[in-house]
Amino acid sequence: MKKYLLLLLGLPFFLNVQAQNNAAEYQLDFTKQQQNLVHVKANLELSQAKNRFFMITHPSDKNPDGEAKFVKNITAKNKKGQKQTLKYLGEGTWEIQSVSSGSFTVEYDIALDHNTENWDHCGGVDEVAYKTPEGLFFTGYSLFMAPDIPALGDVKNVSVSFTLPKNWKASTPWIKTQKPNHYTVNEDLRFLLNNCIFVGNHHEKEIKLGDFELLFALGSSMQPYENDFIGLMQPIIESTTKVFKGSPKKKYLIVVNENDIMTDGSAFRTSFSQIIKGKVNKNSRTNWGHIMAHETIHLWNGHTLIPKEQEEWFKEGFTDYLTNILLTRTKIIDEPTFYKRFENVITKYNITRDLMQNKLSIQESGNNKDQNHYLVYGGGELVALGLDIEIRKATNNHKSLDDVFAGMYEAFGKTNTRYELKDIIAISNSVSGKNLQWFFDDYVTGTKRIPVTDYLAAMGLQLDGFLEDVYISAGENPNAEQLQFKKGILGL
Ligand SMILES: [Zn+2]
Predict the structure, then answer these.
(1) Residue 171's domain is classified under what CATH number?
(2) Are 209 and 238 a contacting pair, CB within 8 Å?
(3) How far is the CA of 295 from the centre of ligand 1 (A)?
(4) Structural domain boundaries, residue 223
(5) Average pLDDT over residues 455-474
(6) 484 and 376, same structural domain?
(7) pLDDT for 286
(8) In the prediction, which pLDDT does 19 show?
(9) How far is the CA of 161 from the centre of ligand 1 (A)?
(10) Does 450 lie in the same domain as 362?
């Protein structure tokens, strides 16, 4: 009987805890944009957060508050509408100084002055917020406050609504509901914060690719190239889905704007931002197309396949390898362009090893990604080539790195489990039917020189030169195996 009573008592408490952590509701008002402000009203449940809420920030020496610097006129009210005392604790965190905890309505303005700060330390303006003649770009980080709890994924039922000036629209990666300008966030709070949106009178284009709903938000100078973007994204999404044997997310937003500083891309959970400097045409596609394809492949390798500790060589290097070979397989780049791209990869690796005397292993190099950029991307890409060739050799070209990607996706992507190096080794072993531990010991955690000349020769390509001057060409009289490997990797 006592047990029964406890159960009864325990149940409402349990339900209460569930409800407490379950919802977050945001209303964004863009009608004050001409006064350089966006107004945000957030209904947050803060019991578990001990009445603290925060904004994810990218502080720098010059701007220690990062994005929080642009938060103005912040207030908090309890459920009865009574104003609460707020204290800023620094690093983008606030505390409501109230005797009781529970639900609060937090309101604030975001001043649209992000361009007055330098954001190079966190990847540039498209990791934060920027203005264009058509409207406003934001990452979720720069707009939304979140309860200060360790597991943001516990906050489900997240919704966002927009109040917009006339002729404006909101392009978001979230799911439209019946109500106008109202969205529910797929999954949880992390998909609110780690995404980007564009709000304005820009051009929007939606296309369906199988399970994928692709939404483009294009600045007016990018609108004439709409078909160039679709012509790239369609084959890349289709071929990546084929490699991984499945696709992660159904709705995907791509924001493309002109930029006078650089061509760059930033990938988020279900969206990405591309800024382009200079002309958009077939020639420049080698540049922006690579970034767009690379960031899209991160939807699989990076945002669905997530490592336990840093495995940047696999996340970045293998993504770059896949980018280059899929761009070739889909005929977006031709064979000479592939050679050129791969020559650059080898050059970077050689410069780092021989001229800069960088002796870090490819895996260690990821601890300082920016400083060891060439080893993480270039070295990682050469490891991918080597592993691809080793698996093809072991299986008479029946299996390849494609199968490792598919195996990783099946075991860790679909199950939302974080992977480790030993998992990549186990899946490579099972795909190849051989023990490839030595390969990872030598080239990933060890510092043995990757025999690039041999690996390229295995696919019928000849490498000449040394240090920064290297040249790839089609080898003379390739045998049947070399031709099969090349066909398998490049589709040529
Ligand atoms: Zn990347």
Answers:
(1) 2.60.40.3650
(2) yes
(3) 6
(4) 202-300
(5) 95
(6) yes
(7) 85
(8) 44
(9) 31
(10) yes
Mean pLDDT of the chain: 92
Q: Which CATH number fits the domain that encloses residue 369? A: 1.10.390.10
Q: How close is the Cα of 301 to the center of ligand 1, in Å?
A: 9
253: number of Cβ within 10 Å: 24
Distance 257 CA to ligand 1 centre (A): 19
Q: Quote the ligand 1 centre to 160 CA distance (angstroms).
A: 28
Same domain, 253 and 138: no
- State both tokens at 158: 């997240």
**What pLDDT, on the 0 to 100 scale, is given for residue 12?**
41
Q: How far is the CA of 441 from the centre of ligand 1 (A)?
A: 24
Q: Count of domains in the chain?
A: 3
- Give the angle 272-277-281 at the CA atoms, nearest 5°: 90
Give the Å distance between the CA of 144 and the centre of ligand 1.
Answer: 25
Q: In what order do the strands lie in the sheet with 203-209?
A: 203-209, 212-218, 251-258, 271-276, 264-267
CA 267 to ligand 1 center in whole angstroms: 8
Task: Mark whether 281 and 327 lie in a shared domain.
Answer: no
**pLDDT one-digit tens code per residue, 297-312:** 998 999 899 999 999 9
Domain-ending residue, one of 300, 332, 364: 300
* 207 and 281, same domain (yes or no): yes
294 C-alpha to ligand 1 centroid (Å)? 6
What distance in Å separates the CA atoms of residue 320 and residue 392, rounded to the nearest whole number?
A: 19
Q: How far is the CA of 291 from the centre of ligand 1 (A)?
A: 8
Do 347 and 482 have their domain in common?
Answer: yes
Q: pLDDT per residue over 114-150, tens digit each?
A: 999 999 899 889 899 999 999 999 999 999 999 999 8
Average pLDDT over residues 391-415: 97
What is the 322 CA–ligand 1 centroid distance (Å)?
11
From the list 264, 261, 287, the residue with the least C-alpha distance to 274 is 264
The CA 319 to ligand 1 mean position distance, Å, reads 7
**Residue showing tokens 């891309």:** 265
What's the confidence (pLDDT) of residue 249?
67
